[in-house]
Design a protein that fits this description.
12 strands; alpha/beta; Protocatechuate 4,5-dioxygenase, Chain B; 10 helices; 3-stranded mixed sheet; 9-stranded mixed sheet
Length: 290
């Protein structure tokens, strides 16, 4: 079975137009990096990254910062993509053995790695959990554009996990990578605050764009400081609408386990881009490295 695109409206399903969309994200000088990466620099030993998963028009330039760093420091066999389970379907940890289709070609799943996880941890192979979920899919065209067939993926959707369970899972992922001699990069897919009536979250009544940014930078400060408990408590304090808390905590715990440090590459919210404060969603590009 092959996973076909379901993220309609997030990116173009036409090959040539999709390539142009991705390149516009990199070339955006105001919100993106301003250039398409073309040189392998290897000035960082990357561990993990956080990328947004909204429509490319809105969050693509932000995501391009993480993908630029990944390209310039690429030395990996397998990308572990930890996605947000928006619909709460399936198990707390769901994996998929299928290869994935994109308009740029197929992306192969690392089936050996996935089977090792399934044999080693309380996780299930559950295609139903992925049936309507876009958080992993929207990352694949970026990866395919940059790396063609030079990678495989391990797609993981997580939800409702406590810290100890995430820490245990991090250790399993690391152990499997060593057992199979895989160089891995963890890619956590999530967005920050969703503000507006459409999200049933109207915490701010004025200066919404700036206040959402200030709130999100508080969340990001906890991520940079590798403070999972602090992030969790802050989201609870604000009754926050962070769409990616479990992938973000996975990023924190993996980075802590590998004794890495964190760098915020780019943050903006959709209001800064559209100048519309009725709907404001925050996007962050963050990496960790040794």
């Amino acid at each position: 079975m092959v996973k076909y695109p379901i993220a309609k409206g997030f990116y173009s399903f036409d090959r040539e137009e999709l390539i142009k969309q991705i390149e516009r994200c990199f070339l955006d000088k105001k919100f993106g990096p301003g250039y398409i990466p073309s040189e392998i620099k290897m000035n960082k030993k990357l561990l993990a990254g956080i990328v947004p998963h909204a429509g490319y028009e809105f969050s693509g330039p932000c995501a391009a910062f993480t993908y630029k760093e990944l390209y310039e420091n690429y030395n990996f066999d397998t990308i572990i993509i930890v996605g947000t389970n928006h619909y709460g379907i399936g198990s707390n940890i769901s994996l998929l053995l299928d290869d994935w289709y994109t308009p740029l070609g197929y992306v192969e799943s690392d089936k050996e790695f996935i089977k090792k996880i399934l044999d080693s941890f309380d996780a299930v192979e559950d295609p139903i959990a992925f049936k309507y979920e876009h958080s992993i899919e929207v990352q694949l065209p970026f990866l395919k554009y940059l790396f063609d067939d030079k990678f495989k993926i391990v797609p993981i959707l997580i939800k409702d996990l406590n810290l100890e369970k995430i820490r245990d899972f991090v250790r399993v992922i690391d152990n499997v990578s060593k057992e199979l001699n895989r160089e891995i990069f963890i890619l956590s897919s999530g967005d920050f605050t969703h503000h507006g009536e459409i999200y049933d979250y109207t915490y701010f009544k004025e200066n919404i764009i700036d206040n959402v940014k200030e709130m999100d930078l508080e969340y990001i400060d906890k991520i940079v400081k590798l403070d999972s408990e602090g992030l969790r408590d802050l989201i609870k304090k604000y009754n926050g609408t962070v769409c990616g808390i479990y992938p973000f905590i996975f990023f924190i715990e993996y980075t802590k386990y590998k004794k890495g440090r964190v760098e915020l590459l780019r943050y903006y919210n959709s209001g800064e881009k559209t100048l519309n404060d009725d709907i404001v969603v925050g996007y962050g590009s963050i990496i960790s490295y040794i």
